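dumping this here so i dont lose it
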């Protein structure tokens, strides 16, 4: 069951001299009055009474008072909370007989309900974390968001390289009328080698002939002394002599080889371009696959949040930030921020049925009405302050003293409208 405040009685706390108030069980209770009359002091006193030491004002006792502060709050679960004396000694009376002072109060008093500005002023990430903690999908959502970011970055990189590759492929030359694969020069080289061997043989023969010729010359010179040697030499010469051999030319082959080199250069250029185009295409495929992955991660994230029990319709988390009706925190109106804050704090501890809100001047009267209706529909009690003495105020604080506002409107009289 949500615990709510039935009555408040405060004396000599901060600016308060004597304040009594029975807030509405549901919806808005506005504490009105001029500046510096003690409105915020009432909220401070509630926070101290229920929140304990952490919320104790630095100078709790009203200056000029001879008596120490006294605070009394009755709750709708029957518990009566009293603080009195210089240190605000706590007395918790529980008709059900439950033991415990502050610990008992802490079980149903949500700290952020006593100090909503702490939530409203926290960073975007802290707000989102609070919400994710409530709905219990924080870890999984972060995993999905991290995976999405990594995939997104990877896709950007792949896309960039794919564009570069495609541009590079376009700049490469392309030739027509050449074979698809490089032509082999092996056969021609083989023929060239055979001719070279043939020519070498010729050279050898030429040298041999020259050798015998020189011998013949020697022999001729010695002809007279050595007719026999001359005959032998003559004989040898005859044997060695032959028709003048003719060398073959490798010129054509060399021309063919050069042509092949030229063709192969072009073939290689075509292959380079084909390869670059293929690479660009592969990268494009990868890019599309990554786009697909990002889409399914986003879908999974949407489903995760759709399946979660969110405290407010239209509330979500994207990239670690709260989103309400498609807007980030800094783009929400003041009223929307209050609703988002109150609904999250409400959900943090469902046993806490109230929330304190200071300075509701920021809401115009129509928005205030709508906010009141929203609070009622949420079964939430809001005790608020506003610099006003209008009909929306339940009590007016003047010089630290509460005065019942007899002209007060109830929210039931307010015109229709809702968030
Ligand atoms: N212990 C104290 N004893 C007496 N006066 C105090 C004490 N502490 C604060 N004050 C005075 O109370 C006034 C502020 O009280 P409080 O904040 O409750 O007023 P308020 O009605 O909320 O004003 P505002 O409309 O400006 O927000 C200040 O003038 C401050 O000097
Ligand atoms: Mg104030």
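and the seq i came up w/
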């Amino acid at each position: 069951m949500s615990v709510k405040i039935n009555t408040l009685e405060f004396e000599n706390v901060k600016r308060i001299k004597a304040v009594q108030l029975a807030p509405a069980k549901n919806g808005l209770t506005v504490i009105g009055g001029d500046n510096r009359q003690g409105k915020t002091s009432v909220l401070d006193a509630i926070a101290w009474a229920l929140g304990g030491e952490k919320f104790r004002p630095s100078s709790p006792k009203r200056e000029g008072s001879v008596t120490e502060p006294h605070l009394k709050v009755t709750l709708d679960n029957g518990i009566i909370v009293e603080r009195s004396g210089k240190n605000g000694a706590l007395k918790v009376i529980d008709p059900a007989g439950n033991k415990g002072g502050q610990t008992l109060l802490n079980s149903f008093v949500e700290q952020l309900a006593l100090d909503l500005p702490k939530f409203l002023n926290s960073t975007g990430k802290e707000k989102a974390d609070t919400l994710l903690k409530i709905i219990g999908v924080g870890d999984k959502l972060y995993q999905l968001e991290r995976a999405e970011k990594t995939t997104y970055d990877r896709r950007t990189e792949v896309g960039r390289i794919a564009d570069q590759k495609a541009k590079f492929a376009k700049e490469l030359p392309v030739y027509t009328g050449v074979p698809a694969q490089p032509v082999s020069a092996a056969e021609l080289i083989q023929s060239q080698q055979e001719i070279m061997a043939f020519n070498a043989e010729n050279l050898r023969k030429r040298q041999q002939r020259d050798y015998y010729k020189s011998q013949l010359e020697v022999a001729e010179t010695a002809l007279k002394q050595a007719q026999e040697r001359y005959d032998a030499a003559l004989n040898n010469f005859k044997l060695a002599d032959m028709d003048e051999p003719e060398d073959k030319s490798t010129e054509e082959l060399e021309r063919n080889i050069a042509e092949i080199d030229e063709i192969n250069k072009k073939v290689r250029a075509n292959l380079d371009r084909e390869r670059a185009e293929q690479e660009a295409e592969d990268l494009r495929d990868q890019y599309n696959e990554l786009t697909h992955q990002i889409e399914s991660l986003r879908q999974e994230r949407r489903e995760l949040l759709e399946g979660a029990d969110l405290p407010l319709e239209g509330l979500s988390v994207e990239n670690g930030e709260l989103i309400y009706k498609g807007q980030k925190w800094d783009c929400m109106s003041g009223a929307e921020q209050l609703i988002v804050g109150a609904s999250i704090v409400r959900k943090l501890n469902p046993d806490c049925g109230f929330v304190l809100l200071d300075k509701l001047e920021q809401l115009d009267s129509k928005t205030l009405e709508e906010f009141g209706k929203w609070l009622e529909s949420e079964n939430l009690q809001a005790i608020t302050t506003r610099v006003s003495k209008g009909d929306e105020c339940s009590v007016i604080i003047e010089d630290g003293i509460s005065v019942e506002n007899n002209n007060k409107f109830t929210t039931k009289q307010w015109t229709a409208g809702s968030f």
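The chain has a mean pLDDT of 89.
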